[in-house]
Amino acid sequence: MSSFSTSPGTRDILTPDAARWRKFQDVFAGVVEAAGYGLIIPPMFEDLGVFLRLGEATDVVTKEMYDFEDKGGRRVALRPEQTASVCRAFVQHRPTTPWKVWYAGPNFRYEKPQQGRYRQFDQVGLEVLGVEDPYLDAEVIALAAQFYDRLGLKEVQLSVNSLGDAGDRQRFTDVLRAYFEAHLSELSEDSQVTLTKNPLRVLDSKRREDQTIIANAPRIRDYLSPTAGEHFAAVLAALDAQNIKYVIDDRLVRGLDYYRRTTFEFVSTALQAAHTAIGGGGRYDGLVEELGGPATAGIGFALGLDRTLLACDAENVFPAPNTDVFAFVVDTTGGHEAALVCNQLRMARVGADRAFDNRSMKAQMKAADRSGAQVAIIIGSNELEAGQAVIRPMNSGEQYSVNRADLLTAIQNEVSKFQSAN
Ligand code: AMP
What we know:
With 422 residues, the chain is α+β, with helices and mostly antiparallel strands. It folds into 3 domains: 239 residues, Bira Bifunctional Protein, Domain 2 (BirA Bifunctional Protein, domain 2, 2-Layer Sandwich); 57 residues, no CATH class; 95 residues, Anticodon-binding domain (Rossmann fold), CATH 3.40.50.800. 39% of the residues lie in helices and 21% in strands. It contains 16 helices and 16 strands. The strands form 3 sheets. It has an 8-stranded mixed sheet with strand order 1-5-6-11-10-9-7-8, with helices on both faces. It has a 5-stranded mixed sheet with strand order 13-12-14-15-16, with helices on both faces. Strands 2-4-3 form a 3-stranded antiparallel sheet. Helix 1 packs antiparallel against helix 5 and helix 5 runs parallel beside helix 10. The radius of gyration is 27 Å and the shape is elongated. The two termini are 49 Å apart. It binds adenosine monophosphate. Adenosine monophosphate binds next to strand 6, strand 10, strand 11 and helix 12.
């Protein structure tokens, strides 16, 4: 018989990590829904054309796409990110603007798997369509910062930049191309190829041999049009007013080709790994048009769940949540009593679990310990005869007996005691 394990770059997320994932998404939902963002659940695969709009010089599109022909002969791809799907949905459904949405879920990129880099990875994110106001850029950045704060992360650094409007971007790209062409032989081979497709992306190169040339390259801030310059200044002023710390990074062009004006990235300084970027985003004022819709302003961000949790580990914050099982029923009389007590507690919304197969007292107590429950409820033949049950707090306090008729009330008291102590 053959046996299987997960494909490279994919993982099973087991409990308690999986419970932590869900809590992560809940915390994100709490932050953004309180700011007027509604959940969108786009499909995990779409017509390949939707993602081709992300840009020809983008690795995500050219090298990393999980695309295939389905049984109906359609060319489709697993989503590498969700911004394109949100814009496609906007064009398809034409909701009223501003359209403020958030999402959570897996994306797929055929990358080289390593710590913090997977082929299936989760993101939470948000997008707003139909608003050009620089206060929105600041709101979006502030929400990401608020979320990190809610997780307990302290060592997060925000970088911001402006790529200008389409015209600025084009002018700057031409200047940059001329500059890099003058230094062609000093560039890495990979960057020479990137240069033929998109000079801006050369700024993204992390290769050592490119760094000096990149450091001396022309700067986008010198090529911003007055309107783009004013927009950027207003975003920075709004961030200052909200006391959000940032650094301006001229080299921040970000992976995808569609960005205009504001771009930003969050880096965890607690992570030692090669991949310290835990989230990022920006404006993409041309993307809706690219997908066949009306000219519409857009801005959003995506935060990597996997990598942010690595940052939480590094800072020792945001632990996995406790189990919801509050009481573990140890029944040595055959198991019928455990069924009745579990049922009663669960109906009253108190988490309860039990052992099966009529195991020994010792084995059942071990299971109670492992379950993470706060109390054990013990019913042996003496208790059964006397119509009683023993309640044993697992961590502190003495065990005591109660009448079966009073069991639920006694356990509810234990729940209250636990809640006020935590
Ligand atoms: P992007 O969609 O490329 O702008 O990425 C946004 C965030 O998603 C990054 O800052 C990472 O935290 C995360 N991310 C991107 N690609 C991967 C990957 N292959 N594995 C894990 N996380 C990723």
